[in-house]
Amino acid sequence: MIKKILISLTSITIIGCCWFFFTLFDAIDLAPTKNNHLASEEKWKIEQRADIDSCEKHVLKNQIDLRRRNAKRVSELAFRTQTILFFVICIQIVLLLILLLVPKRYILKI
Q1: DSSP code of 110?
Q2: Each residue's pLDDT tens digit in the chain (110 positions)?
Q3: Where are the alpha helices (DSSP H) in 24-106?
Q4: Less Cβ crowding at N or C end of the chain, within 10 Å?
Q5: Is 92 exposed, middle or buried (0-12, 13-18, 19+ CB in 10 A)?
């Protein structure tokens, strides 16, 4: 009975971690040079505009930089979280294999 409970808890943990791992793929910035290029293009377009003054241009450029910095931070955090989740998944798989391979008589009875 205890073996079934441990196997189900391990399986649920693996499934949950895998789901969270794959949902974080949207937050990872896989092509930072492309996004940096797009940000510099946006800044250049703002600089070319004649309908706004220099203060507004400066504010808009700072907003672009802030968005880019925040996106980088989110991407770094998502990558770190995925790394931790990967190790948790590996540990859980090892535990699951041990649970499946160990005979019932060696598992502690509670």
Answers
A1: -
A2: 778 888 899 999 999 999 998 998 888 876 666 777 888 888 888 888 888 888 888 898 899 889 888 888 888 999 999 999 999 999 999 999 988 888 777 766 65
A3: 32-48, 54-101
A4: C
A5: buried
